[in-house]
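Much of what follows relies on a compact textual record of a protein's fold. An example makes this concrete, so a full record is given next.
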Amino acid sequence: MAAWKEVGDLIHELTCPICLELLTDPVSLECEHHFCRSCISRSWEEVPGDVSCPQCRRVFTQRNTSPARTLGNVVEQVRLLKVKVAEREEEFYCEEHDEKLKLFCEEEQKAICVVCGMSRAHKAHSVIPIKEAAQMYKEKLETSLDLLKRKMEEMIENKSKEEEKMGELKVRAEELTDAIRAEFAKMHKFLNEREEAMRSKLREEEENILKRLEGNMKATMEEMSAIEGRISELQTRLKMREATEILKDIKDLLTRCDIQPQRPEEVAVELTMEVFGEPFQFFRVWKEMRRIIEPVPTSLTLDPGTANNQLVLSQDLTSVKESDKEQDLEQDLPDPPERFDEYLCVLSSQSFTSGRHYWEVFLGNKVQWVIGVCGESVNRKRNILTVPSQGYWVIGLFNENDYRASTLQNTVIPVEMKPWKLGVYLDYEGGQVSFYNADDLSHLYTFTDTFTEKLYPFFNPCNNLTGKNSDPLTLLTG
């Protein structure tokens, strides 16, 4: 390796100080410094008069240069040697033995020369030809490359999915923003109209009372004017000295002075809510406002024709529980296609093909139940799988405190406070079924899907084998 350093030093000595390349057609100056003929010529070209050496700055009155032929031959030899050195470097040589690397030590994972392979350091190691190792590791590198490419493709796909979700989120947020704006605009319009109507009614009542008070005031003023006239007349009569003058038409005078003031109409000036016809006017406005809110709370009833024959429905068809005794199916109940024959399920009589709807179910102390919606065409016979792919979007309570969404993975729903009432929200066009603890409207779970058929509210009060699940499921009216 020292030899290659010496070659480098020699190349440095044979480098033109002007172009910094190996000398080409070298010439020597009187100061014995060497330059390429063309380089020194260009350097002196634009200098008038005396010139100097670009390296030592010695001044010359004559522009004399001498060919350095021997030096030129040496430069050419070095130029060839430089090419060989470059070729040698490309072949990779052992730094310790200056031998070509022909072997590969598998233990140390590096290329070695033949001398290294025979040394004690590698004697016990597994050594293979370097070309064989290169092929082996090339295959490993290709495997790693394929793996990384697959990972990159997966990451690109994931990135695309996340970008798509971000786009969907943005669109959904804009839709919800518009929906919120529209809902509150309706409420603002409704409340503004009701406020103006109540203000108008109040102004009308105020004007009516004011007219009655003004009538009383006018009558009082007229009476006061008449009394003032009689007072003046009596004062004039009392100033008279003659008896005949004092007693003249005395009867008529006394009659005129016998004025009985008219009692003014009793007018109440305390304005109350009775002005508007009922003491709970604001409550009535709130009830009216509920009719403009979407979704309007829906009143549901249960459909006996869909109820499993072990279920008992209340007379008003708003509650359901398991029967204490199985009914006689052949004698009491027919078995139409719409009836659930194995699972304790029942549907509502109402169904939905559009719009947004909300209903509530009282759960009470039940320790097991399943509630949600299902499609009209779902399987209702024998074993059924209540998952979205089969047309069911339901959640349930199992084993007293195990809340789950009915999916293929049975998704666990974390619930901080036991719900006594369950709220179900359906947005048909929006493809959403959401469940809430109706006591505080805390969100429990949401299914998102595309609905294409009629949907029915679905109820399963579950069995009472443990004796703790006897309470019914009860539909709450809107």
